[in-house]
Specification:
single chain, mainly beta, 3 helices, globular
Length: 282
Amino acid sequence: AEDGIRDVERSRGLGDVYKRQVSTQSTWDYQFASKVMPRGPRKHLKRIYAPSHWMLDKLSGIWAPKPSSGPHKLRECLPLMIVIRNRLKYALNYREVMLIVKDKAGNIKIDNKVRRDPHYPVGFNDVVSIEKTGDFFRLLYDMKGRFVLHKIDHNEAKFKLCKVIRRGTGANSIPYILTHDGRTIRFPHPDIKANDTIKFNLEENKIEKTIKFETGNMVMATGGNNIGRYGSVLKTEHHPASFDIVHVKEANGNTFATRSQNLFVIGQGHQPSITLPKGKPY
């Protein structure tokens, strides 16, 4: 019959409609889904969907290195493979990167810790140390908001700046702060608040200095449309139930405004605590 629910034999009316048919739709869906749908998070990244600030060419293959889970977000970092192969030109291909990273000597250090994962995410203000060549780099933004490996000396590679994301109290009433690179520091100074910046010693793993987020200090935009620009804080507009807007003045006199969460304090007054890439402000 056309309705598909009667027997193949000649029907003798509606009384012959079978009501004992068992549906196999749910079983088929489960079997089909188990064979087609992947399990867990995606492990691949196509090159055309990679962040544009990685500056990968379109004709060198289909795939791009997907950053591992770590202290920085996927679209706010550079995989260690791109740092070694595409930026520093220490390797020509994936195999050479593996030989460099996986070596027992521990050739590559990120924030004074040996990293052997070629997909490790390197983020803003991270220090890349290559002791065999005597090179030290800090990952910063250039004037156009792209990641740049800024070369530094040995003394500057001993510390990094960390932005305080939030302050809280953990188990047993232990105070702590959380930084932008995933660090949890217990028993901080009571004066350290959210949006402040700490100068963190990478060799001794302790806080050396605190730079407050206040008017007159030097900040760099790490998000929004003004990413990469830096200057001094002019004023802060507080908007209840909304975002605080901060006005920043650059060295050439230009000003811009952005949300407070997009700014990173980099120096006390007009003097930055780290060396910045060469280039004129906007």
